[in-house]
Design brief:
With 175 residues, the chain is α+β, with helices and mostly antiparallel strands. It contains 3 helices and 7 strands, in the order ββαβββαβαβ. It is 20% helix and 38% strand. Strands 1, 2, 3, 4, 5, 6 and 7 form a 7-stranded antiparallel sheet that branches. A hairpin with a 4-residue loop joins β3 (78-82) and β4. It has one domain (31-170): Regulatory factor, effector binding domain (Multidrug-efflux Transporter 1 Regulator Bmrr, Chain A), CATH 3.20.80.10.
Length: 175
Amino acid sequence: METNALPNYDSSDSPTGCCPRFNPQGWDAIDLHFENKLFLKAETRAVFHIPTNMAAVFAKTFADIEAVGAQSDDDCIVMSRDSSNWKSEHLFAVTKEVPGHEMVRLSGDYLTKTFEGPFRDMRKWEKDMDQFVKSRGFRTLKSYYFYTTCPKCAKAYGKNYVVAVSEVEPELVAA
């Protein structure tokens, strides 16, 4: 895949009026390469990994991104990871800086794997992702998860897709 490119994400298919219906085609088992790819960083609170203010933070963040025209339908992803039992970080792909927010740039190689099912399967998905990364000859540096729809939309669509995005480096093999 081209540097800083993401698979297609069709935001026009949104019968709920909230989250677009996710089409997993093109998102599973792909290699991504980022070179100073720009993201807006936001944080949410959690209680033992269960988010408590995610809806409010996401609504404000998306509004701020849209207000300055920093969104792109061709480059849509929010990568999330729990930094502790009490906090999660979320990286929103953007096309330019958004005033009042922390901006980060990512560079490196990433592998993806798409999962479908209830959020309670997260531990299994983490293990499956680690095995997938190892099968490709890499080791995981850091993993993020792209929650493609909110819980209400996942219920409405009958599918809950989550894309694991792991930063990787080649596994060193002892001689």
